[in-house]
């Protein structure tokens, strides 16, 4: 069984050491009194998500001692991308952290988190998540047996491919890009004349290697930790989307814990959330430096080039407006971009 702690890259080890929680002695308890909760995720051991999950586990151990042990499993060790949600609902695992696109099967309103160029920072993402709109989305999840405990940042999404630099919308024409199963992402690539291919995160490298994909979109850290720079020599820094993760638990399991335990777990999640908010950008920038050092051709879009891409994405917003209604989209936009 994988332990909760892992060897980290030197930079990340320094980050963790700088903010590692202290330990508290607790009275020994019996095996019958001890709860084991498993946190499964699909990213690497040096990803922001994993580091935050370990932080959560450590913070819970500090508060609860041996009463609750949170075991963190990286790299789809227990369940692969797509399997983890089913496992959570069945009670096979107790925590996952997934992109909002994974939640559209429960509530279609979550698709707005994938709108291109909606967010200019993680603060914008949090503003929507904590708004009355976001509260309604979370209540709808709870009605389906899922409790959203927090939203964690990773970073801005970037394009990579193995054909040529991607700058203008026409550069995407005819290329196949991996996406998660979500309508906004399909609309996004359709607007660019590209082909969207739905598949699991853990197979992206193999699918590119087999020639089934030309490109993908992800954060610097996810690109580097999946070794995509070995197969994708072109990286476009577009910052067109923001990848965040909703930390979920099963409602039935959550309600089965006594109030003291739930409060301690909430405080531990909050501690981990603060940590990842403070460190996700640095982790991604360290990954970008390694991508550049590997010889990948990096192109940062200019302000004018981003505007051209934003114009190409107008149909994506129109489609969301048709699916969810103009009033709802207007509320989302005013929440994320409040006026003076």
Protein architecture, described:
- It is a single chain.
- The chain is of the alpha/beta class.
- Helices cover 44% and strands 18% of the residues.
- It contains 13 helices and 11 strands.
- Strand 1, helix 2 and strand 2 form a beta-alpha-beta unit.
- The longest helix has 35 residues.
- The radius of gyration is 20 Å and the shape is globular.
- The N terminus is likely disordered.
What's the helix and strand layout?
Layout: H1 10-18, E1 35-40, H2 48-64, E2 68-73, H3 83-90, E3 95-98, H4 122-129, H5 132-143, E4 146-156, E5 158-161, E6 176-179, H6 183-191, E7 195-198, H7 204-209, E8 215-218, H8 220-225, E9 234-237, E10 242-250, H9 251-256, H10 259-293, E11 297-300, H11 303-312, H12 314-324, H13 326-336
Parallel strand pairs: 1-2, 6-7, 6-8, 9-11
Antiparallel strand pairs: 3-10, 4-10, 5-8, 5-9
Helix pairs in contact: 2-10, 6-12, 12-13
Rg from Cα: 20 Å
State the low-pLDDT regions, or none: 1-26
Spell out the helices and strands N to C.
HEHEHEHHEEEHEHEHEEHHEHHH
Please count the helical segments: 13
Strand content: 15-25%
What is the strand tally? 11
How far from one another are the termini? 53 Å
Helical fraction equals 40-55%
Report mean pLDDT, rounded to a whole number.
92
Q: Report the sheet with the most strands, covering strand number, pairing sense and barrel closure.
A: 6 strands, mixed
Strands side by side in the biggest sheet = 7-6-8-5-9-11
* Spatial shape: globular
Find the structural class using helix and strand composition.
alpha/beta
